[in-house]
Structure formats: structure tokens, C-alpha cells
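Q: Start with the shorter request: fold the first protein.
A: Done. Sequence, then structure:
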Amino acid sequence: MRFMIKSRWELQKLFIFLQLILCPAASIYFLSLRDWDSMPATWIFSIALNLFGMFICIFLFMSVVKDRSDITFRTGYFSYLIGICDFELFLSLVTWLMDDVASFHILNAIANTASAALSTIMLRVAWFYLVEVADLDTPILHKISRFVNVIAAISFTLYIVNYFGHYYFYVDSNGLYHRGPYFITTYVFTAIMFICIIGISIFMDVSSTKKNALISFAAIPIVAVIVQALTFGISLTYPAFLLSLIFIYGNVFAEQNHELTQNRLKAITAENKLLLEQQKHERIKTELNMATEIQTKTLPTIFPPFPDAKGIDLYSVMHPAKEVGGDFYDFFKIDDDQIGLVIADVSGKGVPAALYMMIAKTLIKSAVKQGMSPAETLSYVNEQFYETSEELDMFVTVWLGIFNLKTNLLTASNAGHEYPAIKRAGGSFEIYKDKHSFVVGGLENIHYKEYELSLHPGDTLFVYTDGVPEASDETDTLFGTNRMIEALNHNPELHSKELIAHVLQEIQFFIGTAEQFDDITMMALRIEEK
């Protein structure tokens, strides 16, 4: 749509520009055909004034369209006014050149009729331009505009009919122009227009600049009309109209250009702000991608993790809700006979939780490798975290186990984490309500409980974060522990990787198009024959 408007505006500019060039060129040609010695001085003055006005129209039009990127009704109406004024000046010049030349009496009559009829169109366009300039949109103005259209149509028709009736003016067979008995009534439409324009400037709320433009548009031509009505042999109406256009350009367009400049500055500022926001977003996105990569590399991802450890099938996965998450898992060799197993959930999400997670993971692994039991490890990490956690209002739920590869004995401690699920050989998964202790980083001097589980071939231990049971669909219905157990028991004899993949598939099918609000982390340990 905007392309069509711009294309139309370009065609309009081209058409008016060609007219502005052709009118003075044609005028100069007509000037060469007339004998100047027989012309009165007042006629020569009017011809020179009209020709000078045509050249002024060219410069005024070029000033209006130069470097203007706005395509508005104001600019369009104003350029039409310049074009009409230029053509009126040309017709006025032609009528003076043809006056008192018998061979041109028909052409002279046509030129006078066209000039008079065109004046109604010019005044109508001027009215709508000034309404646009005033930035007014009221019911009374709509009624006045309809009235102006009706009066303009009547006036235009009467001028055309005058060619045959001669009640306004006529050109005799000798080519001499005469005013008719009702010539004075030709100014009725002009007077109505000027009264309406002055009414806008007085009774409507418009700025002083626009008010001056409105008054000048009416006042300057009124003076010219009065002078022209009382004299014969001098043409001032259209030069006066051109003077009004120049005054409007100097005031209204200056104000409009100031507004456009301000709007362009605002647009540039907004564009720069948007660009900075986009750059900031891209930078954050890049940093988050780097954080995701760093976090991913801190989690063990090589499976099977202990090729030389016979009799275990271990697999883990973590799906963060954001680019980086607060969940983590870990498994590592303590010595030739023992491995450490960790799954934890840091309160919160995003980068702060991820940084907190990395610290917790490092402290837990370091403490376990130094020979601490699960309960001792959690107590140690809790003391390290307590002061910082209190300031940041963050804590960690942890399930920590140490599995003996020779005895298949699991020693574990649960710090406010989800209950694990366990399947015995030939059986199905059930929730194992282990001994719970308080979260890590919540209170100081916590004594963490510890328990032991003996695992045998065919047994599978499944641990997870709360992102699994608390996954929700579009209606905020939770996946829940029961659905998790059902997913595990769909085929409880699956290997750890396939088992976790099936649970994850069930979760994703359940939540559908809903957004994932929490990290989803799972770990499965299956005991096999050595």
C-alpha cells in the first residue's frame, strides 16, 4: 500500500513539474506573437507579474518536494495548489495577450472561462489543505466541507454555462473582454471560502503559526480581489494567491519540517535503542550458549562411564528449563571398589543457579574423594554453603550415594530430595521412602541421616529431580509420581538408557505444547550379573 502511495506521489510530482516548465515556456512563445506597442501599460504589468509568478511557482515547488520523505495529504494538497496557481497565472497571461485580438476571440473566451472555473477547484483544494494544516477533525468541519463541495460544484457549473449566457463576462467578436451585469457575484464563492477560513482561525483551537497561515491565506487575496474588482486592466488575484502560498510555506512547512525532524530523531533514537537491545540480547544469548556448553562439559556424558566396572548399567540425563539450569548429576570413581553417585537440584533457575550448582558439585565430589561418608559430605557442604545461601536465599536438595562394586552395597543420604524409586529383580518399580534430612544450605549444624541398600542382579535404582513429577501440561496438571511409576513399569526390565528415554518421552507427550518450567534430571543404576 505504501509503495502504491509513493509511486502515485512520484507521478504527481513529475506531472506538476512538467506543467511548471511548460507553462512559462508556452507563455514566452505567446509573448513573441503579440505586438507590444498597442498594449496598455497596465496590461503589460499584469503579463509580467503573471510570468514572474510562474517562475516563482517552479522554485516554490522544488523547495517543497526537495528532501521530503513524508507522503502526506498536506504535501499533496500543497503541490496541487502550486500547480493550479501556476496554470491560473498562465491562463491569466494568455487572456491579456489575446485581449483585443479579433482572431483569438474564441480562444480568449475559452481561456477566461477555464480560468474562472479553475478558480473554484483551486479554492476547494485550498480549503481541504487548510483543514489538514489545522489538524482538526470535528463534526462542524465535516458539514462545512460538504457545503464547500456543493458550492464549488454550483460555481464551477455556472462558469461553464456563462460561456453561453454571458452574465458574468464575455469576449466580443473583436476579441475584447467585457464584464457582465452579474460580474460582482463571481466573488461570492471566494467570499464564502474566506469567511470559513477566517472562522477556523478564530473559533478553532489551532497553533499561532497555523492561525497566521490561515489568516494570511484569506487576507492577502481579499485585498487583491477588492483592488481588482474596482479596476480593470490589472490582474492581482493569482499573484496574491501565490504570495499566500509562499507565506504558508514559510510558516506551516517550517513547523512541519521541525516536527518531521523531531520525529526522525525519535525514530533514529528508537532504532538505535532497539539495535542496542538486539546487540545486548545477542551478547546474552552468546554468553548463555557458552554457559550451556560449560555446564554440559562439567556433567559426565560418556556412557558406559566405567568400562572396567563389571555388573553395573548406569545412565543419566539432564534437560534444563532454560539455557542453563540448577539441576545436576554426577558419578565418579572413588577408588577401585567404590563409585560416587549424585543427583541434586539448586533452588532457582538460570545462571545464578548454574553457578551455585557448579560449586556444590565440586565440593561434594572433593569431600567424597577425601573419604567422607555421604552424611559427612552433606554436613561439610552445608557448613560451606550456609552463610552464602542465607544471603542469596538459595539452597540445594541432594541425593548422594556411594556404591561398593564388590559388595553391591549402597550407602546413601537424602538432603530434602525426591524419594528414589527401586525395582527388585523380577518385580516392578516402587517409591522407596528413604530417610530424609534437611536441604543443604538451609540451616547450620545439620546432622544428616544415612542408610544402606543392598542391590542384587536384576535390581534397578532410579533417582530424579522434582522436574519429573512437577512437569505440567497446558492446564497446569502435574505429571505426578504415579505417572512416573507407570512409565517406569511400562517395561521395567529395560536397560538404564532406554528406561530413562521412555520416561522422558512420556513426560514430553504429557506436557504437549506447554512450556517446560523446571529442569528435568534423571539417573538410573541397573545391577547386572558380573
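Q: Next, the second protein, separately.
A: Sequence, then structure:
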Amino acid sequence: MKNKKFITSIIICAVLLILSIILAKPTIKKLNFGLDLKGGFEVLYLVESLEGEKTPTNEEVSSTYKAIRNRIDTLGVSEPEITIEGDKIRVKLPGVTDEAQARERLSTPAVLTFRNTSNEELMTGAVLDTPGAKLDYDRNTNLPVVALSIKDNDKFYNVTRRISESNDQLITIWLDFEEGDTYSKEECGKSGNKKCISAATVKEAFANNVIIQGNFTEAEAKELVDLINSGSLPTKISEISTKTVDASFGEETLNNVVIAGIITLLIIILIMTFFYRISGFISSICLLAYTVIVFILFSLIDGVLTLTGIAALILGIGMAIDSSIITLEKIKEELANGKKLTNAYKDGNKRSIVSLIDANITTFLAALILFIFGESSVKGFATMLILTIIVTCIAMVLVNRFIMTKIIESKVLDGKEKLFIGPYKKNKTKNYLKASKVYMYTISIIILIGLIMTCIKGLNLGIDFKGGSSVSLISEDKIDENQVNDILKKYEIVEQAKISDTENYYKLEKTLSENEVKEVKNALNELNIKSDISVISNIVKKDLTKNALISLAIASIVILLYIKIRFTTNYAIGAIISVLSDVLVTISIFAILRIEINFIFIAGILTIIGYSINDTIVVFDIAREKVNSLKNKTEETLTNVVKESISFSMKRNILTSITTLTAIITLLALSTTGVKEFNITVLIGLLAGTFSSLLLALYIWLKLEIHSIKHPKQKKDDDDDEDYEKLIKGINS
């Protein structure tokens, strides 16, 4: 029976490993990739009302959205993204190579015509009002019908009279009729047909109360209404930003990301197996399954994987492996205290569950806020992060523990604790508080220098935050910079970076128009140079900055409130200051080194915040556990708690950071241009976060607690928090 449980756990591990390897490649192939990983065209439109300065209504924006969506259908794009962002509509067309055609189709209203079955044009969409159609219901049968609003009654009456006197008495409605198109009774009016959208029988002339009947379902009637109304946009739209990514850029980025992912997983398996033996190897298999499950679920919800999604996935992998490290380290601590493997495993799991719950809930709440209030790349980051948290609970907690529980229950490894979990010994308490002061002085100096540099030179803002145009170049041959400069100099070059002999980057002061983008691209094509051009207007840069700041502020407030409820106010203050210091250090280093800050920088900052708060919560949970065991809270006992907590957490923090930073360093080593700024951001932030949760957050908490002891009034407030904590002790223990 005992051996049966052990064999069962081995079989489960083998099945997970084999399935993960088999499913990995087809799962990745089924994913929808965004522009930055596939190439394509993106445009952001500002929607304006046709009635002068009036702000467009939600209905007008929605109608415009539907009209643009129908225009996309005629382009043959398999997986377009189209989203409403207030009074703006963002359109992403992965895989589109003919940017000029896409622009023309999207911004030009569809041509609606009425024809006979011989394809002769009888009248255009000009006979209809705006909007020209609406959903209605037959008064006798209550079935859905399409009601037309006629503007030119005389024209419509004369045409329908002639049709009623014809042999077939049929009038067809077309969108974008082209030479060679012919009427087909079997195809016209069928769902999915975006050209011949309806064929109506006309038995008499009419001009008022015009309806189209056809035994429609409500969905079919709505679709026909949308198609007819797409014949003319109900609003005025204007481009306020565009972005093109050449397929070769996207393919290079995607290949490097895949290679980095494989290398990262292999390194994590080696690290976990080296430090935690059998249990580490099991956790690694679960991590592999975790990654595949995340991709499967992401594909099922029709998610589009972008660079910001990869940022969230990297954070998710760090949190997932950390969930195992937390548990394994607490099991080691129990073994070091003299417990047998079975009891050590049971107690270690019990102690770690609170840390896992608190850490994942805080990150989940932050991700939820970013999803609700964020837009575009921020929302994409939040979606992937929410998904990774859910899968962490399934693969890295439930499945991982199920397998290891079977091994423990088999008793096969009794007396072989080191084989199961690696070497263990009593943790030595070291005084890291001196290092806390050094760390505080160091980051204060960095932040001060960064502030001075920002005041003197300002931040090196990319076009996402400054407006203008960016041009990325890639060529099979060496790029002649003089020739390129001759093409771009009239658009005011403000920055030029030579990445390699075959790859260059330019930042332009001017916001290029549609024609100027075409002109630049054509000139570069003549030099056999492929180019990606992004254009950001002032409207977009203001909205992007505002949205990012609001999302981060609300997320920080929610995190603060949760920590206050689950811990105490002093913990919450320590956590927020710690996370804020990581962000400020990162920004300061960017200011000092003059590294460009662009939209991917936001994803990096979000990753830092998620990682830092997750790390800090775990450290706080260890401190809280020790504080709750104190008989008397004095300056000496609290100081010892901090020393013990830092000493215990140091190895776990470093291991988690190494596993997370492996992906970042690998991507940097592969020179992945698309995610370079993100990699640098996270590299700096994670290094800061590794130590801030230990040396800063706990230090601030200690000083606040000591202050509370010395001031009874403040102490009373903290006691209230502790009383609340005792009320939910069942959760905390």
C-alpha cells in the first residue's frame, strides 16, 4: 500500500512531464500574438461628433465601433483587436502587411449600393438617413425586422416601382461592390457574407415605413442593421497614433522570448533540484505544467499575447516558484527543529498557507484594479497576471502538494529527509539591521542623484510620453547612416541610437502624418531597409500618463487597506514605503543613465510592484508569526524578531530572485530589442525589491512598533488592529 502511493506519485509526475512537453509546442502555436510579437499595424482613432464641438455619445461611439469592425472583416484579418477607450477606438491588426490598404479601408466609409439581380446600380446609400437602419418588430407576428429610414423619398419610390414591375421583383443591397462581383441567390444575405448583405422582394413601390422581412432571428436582424449602417460612419474619426511592426521584428522578438523561456525553465529545474532534491524536481515539473496551463487558458479566453503579457508571465513564474520555496523552507525549518519528516511536512505546509493566501490576494487585488481602470497594455498585463495567480493556486499549490503528500504518506523516504528536501540545519540569526541602514543610505543617495538629474536634464521620455515619432530600422546589410539621416533630418531628429551595423533607432520631434509615414517607408525601402514607425500625438501621451498614474494610485491604496486589515497599520506603512522605494530607485537609475522611458517601462514598473508587494507580504507573515508567539513586546524582543525574520528569509528571497531574474538576464543576453527597456527595468527593480522587503520594510515596521511601545496612545490604536487580527485567528494560524 505504501509503495503503491509512492508509485502513484511517480506516475503522476511522469504524466505531467510528458503531457507538458507534448502540449507545449501546439499550445504556443495556437496562441494569438500581438503586433510586437507578430508584426502588423495599429491605429488609435479619436471619435468626434458630427455636430460641431459636441462630445460623442456612447451610442455614437458604439456605432462607430461596429462600422469599423465591419470594415476590418473585409480586410481578411484573422485575429483583429478592436477596443473602445472612452472617446477613442484602438484597432490592432496583427499580420497585416499592406498598411496603406488597411488605413484606407478603416477610415473610408463603406460604399452601400442598391442593385438589381443583373448587378446594375439603382441607388446608393445616400437615399438613407443616418443611421439608415434600426431593429424593429412586426406588429402582427412580433418577429424581428429591419426598418429603413429614408431620406430621399422620391428616389426610393421610383426605384422600388421599377423593381416591382420587373420579372424577379428583387432588389439587392451591397457593401463595396467591385467589378466581377455577381449576385448569388445561395450566398446573398447569408451570415458571414459582408458584400451582398440582403436580397428583398419588392411587390409595390414605397418610400415610407420601409421594412426588410426575412424570417430573421434577432441576432441576424441586428447583424443586417450593423452592416447597413456601416455604409456611413455616424461620426468623424481622426488618427491620433499609429504603430507598425515589421514581421521580421516581431519574429525575432518571439523567437528570442521562446528561447529565453526554455533556458529559464531548464535553469530553474537545475536550481530547484540542487537545493531541494526530489521535492524541488517535483516543483519544477509542476512549474512546467503551470506554464502550459496558463497558455492553454489564455488561448481559451482568446487572449492576445503581447510584451506586457510576457511581463506578467515572468512575474507569475517568479510567484509560482516562490510558492514552493516558501513551503519547502518552512518544512526544512521544522526538520531542523527535530521533527520527523511526516510532522515537519504537515506543519510546514500549515504554516506556509497563510503566507501564500496573503501574498496572492494582494497581488490579485492589484491586478484586478489595473484591469478595471487600465487601458490597452496595462489591461493586457492585468489579464495575464490574474490568470497566473489562479493557475498558481491550482498547479503549484494543490497539484504540487497532492503529489508530495502521496510521497510522504508512502513512508519510502522516512529517514532519507535530505534526499526528499535537501540539506537542512538550524537557521543562524545574524544582525542585518546594520545592513538596513547602509541600504537606506544607498537608495537615498541614488534617489537624490536621480532627482537632481531629472531637474537638470529631465527624464529621457520616449514618444509614448512625449509625443512625436520613433523609427526602428533593420537591414540585412550594413546601414548607411548618412543616407538615413538625409531622409529623416527634415523631421527633426532628436535622438539616434546605433544598436548594431544592421539595426538603428531614431526618435523624431515631429508627429508624422499618414502621408509622411508612407514617404519615409518608401524612401527606406529603396535602400533595402525595413522600418517600424510609431506615431504618438499629444492627446495620447496625456491620456497614457494619466491612466497609468490613476491605475497605480488606486492599486496602491487597495494594497494598503488590505495589509492594514490583515496585519496592522505599521505593516502597511512599511510595505508601501518599501514598494515606493523600489519604483523610485528604478526611475532614478533610468534618469542617471539616460535610458529611454516608454510604454513597456510601465509594464516593468507594474512587474516590480507586483513582485515587491508579494515578497514583502511573505516576509511580514514570518515576522507576524514570531510576534504572535511573544509574551511581551519590548524593543529588545521586537528587534530580535526582525533579526530572526531577515535571517530566515534571506536565502528564500535570493533564490526566488535568481529564478525570476534568470528570464530577464537571458532575454538581455539575447539582445531582444523589443523588450530591452522592460528587461532593464525589471532587473533594477527586482534587485532593489529583493533587499527592500528585508532591509527596509521590516526596519520601518520595527521603528514604528518601538514608537508605539513608547507612546501608549499610539499603542492603543495598534492593539485595536491586533484585536481584529485575533478575531480571524483561524485564518492566520
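Q: Describe the second briefly.
A: The first helix runs from residue 2 to 30. The radius of gyration is 31 Å.
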